[in-house]
């Protein structure tokens, strides 16, 4: 019980500190969203009335209250789900933009992460069990793929399969010509989304499977030398049972912990990869917010990513306490 109480207290304090920093950092940057939006409107032409200027400053900035009052107001708005208004796509609320982009990233990066984890752990367990044989050559091959920058790998896949062969689309999350009104719940749209997301998902799998494979292979080599594996072999148990029940189950514990952390970063997406494929996810939204100095959108995206990472770490700490009793006693 002491283990869980300490973990809960740690994450509560971390969440408070993270949200406080998320409030403070944009206010330390030069300028403010209201001035940026007004400058853009003036460059676009036309005169701005005093009423328009006053309303924009009231909505996006010009708050003359103290920092403490702004901090309390920020907490109040955040607890109500109000993350402000984006100047990139004014007057769209930040929550609407994030809600529209989040499913694309979660589905694409989430499925790709799960696939790479399952493949990496499964193949890594087999390679570690058959160490010293020809299957060990899989390790340097996948390690090379992992060492290649994933955005460069994405560009190579686009050049080969999209430009040269024409098998897959170059950009987008779905066929905008077939669905001009936007996403919809239909098998045709799901098929279009899967077709457009294949190359981005393949990029993530190829660039990340090597890490899972290498880590699992090394843990298997260490595990098969343990006394309980030798005892199981001395009992005459079948090698398949030893591999599945004794070796793989214990060797996979560190990988499961790392998988939980990776799921937390799924929300962040693969920023450069989404930019390469013009994929409508959180990563592309983050780049747009930085390029346009959209502090409200930037703040909202960082907040969602931070909460997702903390939640994933918290859940994995709880799960790890169940699957490994040693973690509960080493407090």
Radius of gyration: 25 Å
- How helical, in percent, are the residues? over 70%
Contiguous helical run count: 15
| Net shape | globular
Find the CATH superfamily of the largest domain. MetI-like
What number is the mean pLDDT? Answer: 76
Notable traits:
15 helices, MetI-like fold, 0% strand, 331 residues, globular, mainly alpha, 2 domains
Q: How would you describe this structure to a colleague?
A:
This protein folds into 2 domains: 2-79, no CATH class; 94-324, Orthogonal Bundle (MetI-like fold). It has helices at 2-28, 33-43, 50-60, 67-79, 94-129, 138-147, 150-164, 187-223, 227-234, 239-251, 253-264, 271-276, 282-291, 295-323, 325-329. The chain is an all-alpha fold and 331 residues long. The termini are close together. 73% of the residues lie in helices and 0% in strands.
Task: Set down the secondary structure blueprint.
Layout: H1 2-28, H2 33-43, H3 50-60, H4 67-79, H5 94-129, H6 138-147, H7 150-164, H8 187-223, H9 227-234, H10 239-251, H11 253-264, H12 271-276, H13 282-291, H14 295-323, H15 325-329
């Amino acid at each position: 019980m002491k283990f869980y109480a300490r973990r809960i207290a740690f994450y509560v304090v971390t969440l408070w500190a993270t949200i406080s920093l998320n409030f403070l950092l944009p206010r330390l940057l030069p300028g403010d969203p209201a001035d940026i939006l007004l400058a853009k409107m003036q460059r676009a032409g036309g005169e701005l009335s005093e009423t328009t200027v006053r309303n924009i400053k009231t909505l996006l900035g010009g708050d003359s209250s103290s920092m403490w009052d702004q901090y309390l107001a920020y907490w109040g708005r955040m607890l109500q789900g109000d993350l402000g208004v984006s100047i990139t796509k004014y007057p769209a609320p930040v929550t609407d933009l994030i809600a529209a982009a989040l499913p694309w990233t979660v589905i694409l990066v989430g499925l790709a992460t799960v696939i790479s984890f399952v493949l990496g752990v499964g193949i890594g367990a087999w390679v570690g069990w058959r160490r010293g044989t020809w299957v060990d050559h899989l390790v340097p091959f996948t390690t090379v793929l992992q060492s290649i920058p994933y955005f460069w790998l994405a560009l190579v896949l686009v050049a080969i399969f999209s430009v040269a062969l024409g098998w897959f689309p170059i950009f987008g999350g779905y066929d905008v010509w077939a669905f001009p009104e936007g996403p919809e719940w239909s098998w045709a749209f799901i098929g279009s989304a899967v077709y457009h997301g294949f190359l981005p998902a393949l990029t993530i799998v190829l660039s990340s499977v090597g890490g899972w494979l290498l880590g699992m292979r090394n843990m298997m080599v260490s595990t098969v030398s343990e006394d309980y594996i030798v005892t199981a072999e001395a009992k005459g148990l079948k090698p398949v049972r030893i591999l599945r029940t004794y070796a793989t189950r214990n060797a996979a514990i560190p990988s499961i912990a790392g998988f939980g952390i990776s799921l937390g970063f799924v929300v962040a997406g693969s920023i450069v990869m989404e930019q390469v494929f013009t994929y409508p996810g959180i990563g592309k939204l983050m780049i747009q917010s930085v390029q346009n100095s959209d502090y409200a959108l930037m703040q909202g995206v960082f907040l969602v990513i931070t909460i997702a990472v903390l939640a994933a770490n918290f859940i994995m700490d709880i799960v790890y306490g169940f699957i490994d009793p040693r973690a509960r006693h080493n407090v």
